[in-house]
Amino acid sequence: MSSTTTSTVHQARGERQLHDGWQFEAVLGPVAANVEGRTIPASVPGSVHTDLLAAGLIVDPYLDDNERLVAWVGACDWRYSTSFEWSENDGAGSEHTDLVFEGIDTVARVELNSQLVAETRNMHRTHRFDVRSMMREGTNELTVTFASPVKYADLASVEQGYRPHVNHHPYNSIRKMACNFGWDWGPDVPTVGLWRPVTLHSWTSARLGPVRPIATVEGSDGHSRGTVEVNVDLVGSAPGAGRLLVTVGEAQASLDLEQGQTTATVEVALDDVERWWPRGHGEQPLYQVDVELELDGTIVDAWQGRIGFRTVRIDHTPDSHGTPFAFIVNDRPVFIKGANWIPDDAFVHRVDRPRYAARIAQAEQANINLLRVWGGGIYEADDFYELCDERGILTWQDFLFACAAYSEDEPMRSEVEAEVRDNVTRLVQHPSLVLWNGNNENIWGYQEWGWEKRLGDKSWGLGYYLQLLPAIVAELDPERPYTPGSPFSPENSDDGADQHHPNDPAHGSTHLWELWNRQDYPHYRDSDPRFVGEFGWQGPPTWSTMTRSISDRPLTPESPGMLVHQKAMDGNVKLIDGLIAHLPLPDDMADWHWAMSLNQATAVQVGIEHFRSLSPVCMGAIVWQLNDCWPVTSWAMVDGDGHPKPLLYSVKHAYADRLITVQPRDGGLVVALVNDSGEAWSGDLVIERLSYDGRPLGTVSTPIDLSARETGTVEVPLELGAPDDPARELLVATLGGRRALWFFAEYRDSALEAEQLRTAVNRTDTGYDVTVTATNLVRDIALLVDKVDANARVDDQLVTLLPGESVTFSVASGSDLDEAALVSRDVLRSSNQLMIVRAAR
Ligand code: BMA
Question: Which helix (H) or strand (E) holds 422?
Fold first, then answer.
C-alpha cells in the first residue's frame, strides 16, 4: 500500500508497522458456506471484501448483480488477528509503547494478549493506545473484532432515535463513510477492516504530539512577508533540557521548553516569500517545515510537513444582486471551475497515490481548479491534498455529514469532536484547502425534505454546523473560511431578519437539481445563481467499462445488469426525458450509449457556459461529479475504471480560460466573452450567420478589448439573430482562434444530414493521429477510442466541423490498433448519426 496518511508526518524513531501476518475469520452472522470456519490472509491496510475477493472466496461485487450475492459480508462480525515479536530491549529500552491505528473501519474491539485495549466506533479518526502494561516478552497476540456495520447501524439508529436519511441504510447512526452503504451512484457494500496503517510506537521521556503549522502572509506579491506559527503538542515529560527546533525553508527558530510543558508555539518569520496561487493564476511554491524535539542535545522526535503562503476568504458582502459567494485568494477573486469529488473506490483503501495523481491529472485536463470533497465520503489521504498543493487545484472539504439528520447526543458528539480535531489538525498545512464546510444538504434537507415533523424535538446536527465545527476550526485552523453547509445562504443581518432559504440562488451557494430531475437543461439559463455548488447530468460509463462490468446478453438500457448499475431514483426515465426534447431516442444499444453520453456532455456544458457568462455576479460552478467509485451510470466525468467520458471533454471546453459563448438574453442573443486569463484579450469579434451548407447569410465585426479576468457581452444584431430557416442555419462567433456556435433549432428539429467524412490514420510515436475532414456540417465528432483499446486516450472529443473543415485527434495507445476500427462508425461518432433511425441504416 503506498497510500498512507503519514507520508508527511515523519516520526520514524521507534515506529514499527504492524502490517504483516494478519488473518481474519467470520465469527457471527450469515456466513457463506465456503467461508465458514476458514481463516483467510488479511491485508493491512485493507478490507474484508477485498481480501475475500483476493482469496477467491467471493465474486467481484463490481460486476453484474454480484453486489447482492455478497450482501451477507456486511451482516457478519469478523475477527482480525496477528502476532508479533517484542522485547523490552526493543527501541533502546523505551519507556512507552503505543499502538496507533490511523483508521479502524469501524465498530471494533481491540485486544492485546487477551486484554481489552479499547472499543472503537469511528472510521474517520485515529486511535492511539498506551499498551505498554499489556505487552509481553516474545510473541504478542493482537486481535480486532469487528461488529457487522449493517447490524450496528440498524440498532444504533433505534437506540439514538430515528432520524431521516436518504437511501436504505441508516448510515447516519454510525461514523463510517456514508456511501459505503450505497448511494445513488454507489454500491451497497458495507465493509470492515483496518483501512489505514497500524503502527507500534516506542518512545522514551517525551515525543511530539500533533503539529499544526499555520502560515500567514502580508505585503504585496513580490514583497511578501510570511509567518509560520508552528503549534506543537508535547507528550510525556522530559527530565532534562528540552528544545524545539523549527525550520521553514531557509529560516529557523527554536524554543527552550520548560519542564512539564505540554504545548508550545514557535514562530518563524520569512522576509521574502513567494505566494502560492491556484492554477491559472500563478505558481505553487511550497515550503518544507521541519520540527525537531531535542532532549539533552539529542533529537528524539521529528515531524515534517509542507506549507504554502496565500490568503483566502469568501466574500459575502451583500450587493444589488443579493449575496455573493466568491473565493478571494491573495486578494484576487478566483472564478471556481470546480468538480465534486467522491471516494474513488467504494473500498477506499485501494485508492493509492498514483490513482489520486491520475484523477487529478484528468481534473487538470478538464481545466478544473477546485475539487470539493463531498461529505458522504471521507477525509481523503494526505496524498490527495499534497498533489492538489503541487498542482494548484483548490480543495474544499466537507465535514462528513450528508443528506441526513445526525444525533448531537453522546456517544456521537464526542466521536464527531475527536474526528474533526484529528482531521483539521492533519490538513491544516495544505495551501490548496480553501474551505471547511459543515455538511452536504442537511440544512436544506431539514427545511425542505419533511424532516422537521419526523424529528420532533430530536437534535439533527445544526449544533454541529453552527457551533461545534466552527469553534474547532476557529481554534485549530483560524485562517481558513468555514461555511455551515452546502447549499448555504449567508445571513444578511445580525438579527436574522433577512435570512434566506438555504438554496436561494441569489444568496450564497446553491445546488441546482431541478433541471436533471424535472425541467431539462436549457432551463439552467433561467436563473442567475451566485455560486453553484452542485449540478449535473447522468450518462453511462464508457463502453469498455460498461461491457467489462455487465455481461447481459442482450445488453440493453433495461437489461438486468444495467439496472443494477443505475442507482438513481427513476434514473433511466430521467435519461430518456432529458434526451428526447433534443434528440430522437435510439433503438440500438450502441447508439443509446452514445446519445446518452453526448446529452450528458451537452447538458453540463450549457450550464457551465451560462454560469460563466454571468461572472462576476456568478463566481463559481462545481459540477457533480468528477469521478466514480465503481462501474455505474452516473453524473461522473471519469468512469469507475478511470476512463474519461465525453463529459470530461465538454467540461474542458466550457472551462477553458477564454470562452466564447452565445446566450439567449432579454428576448435576443448575446455573445458572452469570458476572459479568465491573466492577460488582456483583444481583437475583432466576428459574428456570422451561416447556412448548414456553409453559405454566409450575414456578418458583423466588433472590436473587443477585454482586461484580464473580465467578462463582456456583445449583442447579436437582430438581422443575424433572426434566422430565415432555423432548421438550416447557425451562428458562428469567432475571436482569434476561438469560436462559439449557436444552433437555432434542436438537433431533432434541424436539417442535420448524414455525415460525410474523410479520414486518415497515421502512426505516431505515442499512438495514432486521426484526421477527420467534413464535407458537410458534422456536429460533436468524438472518437470513442476505448472501444478499440480500453486503455487508449484521445486528446479531444466533441468537435463540430463546418463543411470543408478538418480536425486531427491524437490517440495515445501502447498497442497496435486496428486502424479501420478506429474510424468505424461505432468509434468515430457524431450527433448526425443519431438523427437517422435504424430503419434508414
Ligand atoms: C447531491 C449530492 C449527492 C447525490 C447527488 C446526485 O444531492 O450531494 O448526495 O449523489 O446529488 O443525486
Answer: helix 412-427
Q: How far is the CA of 497 from the centre of ligand 1 (A)?
A: 30
Helices 353-365, 646-654: axis angle to 10 degrees equals: 50
The residues, ordered by sequence, that sit 6+ positions from 337 with a Cβ below 8 Å of its Cβ are 367, 368, 369, 370, 608, 620, 621, 655, 676
Per the CB < 8 A criterion, the answer to whether 70 and 50 are in contact is no
Cα(190) to ligand 1 centroid in Å equals 19
- The pLDDT of residue 9 is 42
Beta-bridge mates of residue 673:
660, 712
Query: pLDDT at position 762, please?
Result: 98
Of 776, 807, 757, the residue nearest 691 (C-alpha): 776
Whether the bond between 554 and the residue before it is cis, its omega within 30 degrees of 0, is yes
Q: Which residues of the chain have pLDDT under 70?
A: 1-13, 90-93, 221, 238-239, 492-498, 837-841
Overall pTM > 0.90: yes
Looking at residue 8, what is its pLDDT?
37
Closest ligand 1 atom to residue 376 Cα is 9
Task: Spell out which residues line ligand 1, taking CB within 6 angstroms.
Answer: 183-185, 403, 440-441, 534, 624, 635
- Name every residue whose Cβ is closer than 8 Å to that of residue 69 and which is 6 or more positions away in sequence: 58, 59, 61
Per-residue pLDDT, 740: 98
Nearest residue (by CA) to ligand 1, atom 9, is: 403
Grid cell, residue 162, equals 430515528
User: What per-residue confidence (pLDDT) applies to 13?
Assistant: 64
